[in-house]
Amino acid sequence: MAEIGETTAYQALTKHLAKAKYAFVCPSPETQGRVVQKRSSDASTADAKNAPDFFGWNLPCTRETLQSIIPDAVFDSLRKASIITTSDSDKYRSTIRVSNFYLPNLPSQDPDAAPLYYIHSSFPPSSDSVFFGPDTYLFISFLQTIARHLPQAPSCVIDVCCGSGAGAIHMARTYPQAKALGLDLNPRALRLGGVNAQLANAKVDFFESNLFAAVPDDVKSLGVDLIISNPPYVASSTDGEDLPIYADGGAEFGLGISIRIVEEGMKVLSSSGAIVVYTGVAIPAADPGHDAFLEKLKKVEDAEVAEYTILHPDMWPEEIGKGAYADVCRIQVVGAVLRRNPKGEARGAEHRRQ
């Protein structure tokens, strides 16, 4: 859990940024790296000049410039919480980024509502960074379409491999009466998850957990109505190089974790529940019509694929032709919805009667 002073500092910051109509849509690490490199190569653009420069692109700046970006009281609270730090050059930096939680699409549901912001790791990312970016935006957009797969409002929602909880927070805001859980292995992500939930006025319980291991027994016994996940899906490195926690999807071209989530999720899913997985699928250059993830989902016992939508046909093109992706032509990201196969449910009921 974040300290009270730290949470208060984030609240003061986001309140000020909202008044200033701050906007920053977080790009991919590749894009941010290019922008920052170009800005840093020119002395006239290397330093932050406004709030997006400082809290979005994470450029440094002087105390004088910061006074034009945030009030002194907000600066003091951020310094005390080590959210803003200083270096030997007397330049200040932000240890976090602040991004729009939702893409600023029009028409918006409530044009007068204050924008919702999301706190995540600074750039450049480290091995335990709390990721937020294009995948998160696509994941949340897909979650906004899944109500048609739910016969009624869920009473329990679990976000597996939740990171700092964007999916869990969105579902808790959508279904405030539901018990919402966020599960992840990264303590740093879970800590920021608590901060972001408070900023969104959403009730989410976060647990450090290897997939479903920490789900309370009473929740398992009742069955989970909705399981969602945007797990890591980058294929494990062929040269043994460690990937960041937020990226490493394991074996099978990064599908290992996604498949486990579906298989293990079916064991705790309620009879009318649904599993929603957003993940990346490596498409082989030799067989560009082959989708290994869809093929595997169709073989999951007692499950049926209710929806399978390609959300982006060519994500992370910079990975193609290298390492594990040497023979891959593209990485497509998909949104999959699974529910219990009625025939499998009938077999289970028959088995319970015997």
From TrEMBL:
Q: Which residues form a coiled coil?
A: none
Q: Which GO terms describe its cellular component?
A: mitochondrion
Any idea which GO molecular function terms this record carries? nucleic acid binding; S-adenosylmethionine-dependent methyltransferase activity
Keyword Membrane part of the UniProt annotation: no
The alphabetized UniProt keywords are: Methyltransferase, Transferase
Q: Which residues form the Methyltransferase small domain?
A: 146-238
The cross-references to Pfam families, in alphabetical order and at most eight, read: MTS
The protein's matches in InterPro entries, at most eight in alphabetical order, are given as: DNA_methylase_N6_adenine_CS, N5-glutamine_MTase, SAM-dependent_MTases_sf, Small_mtfrase_dom
Annotated GO biological processes are: methylation
| Gene3D superfamilies listed in its UniProt record | Vaccinia Virus protein VP39
Name it.
Answer: S-adenosyl-L-methionine-dependent methyltransferase
| Gene source species | Massariosphaeria phaeospora
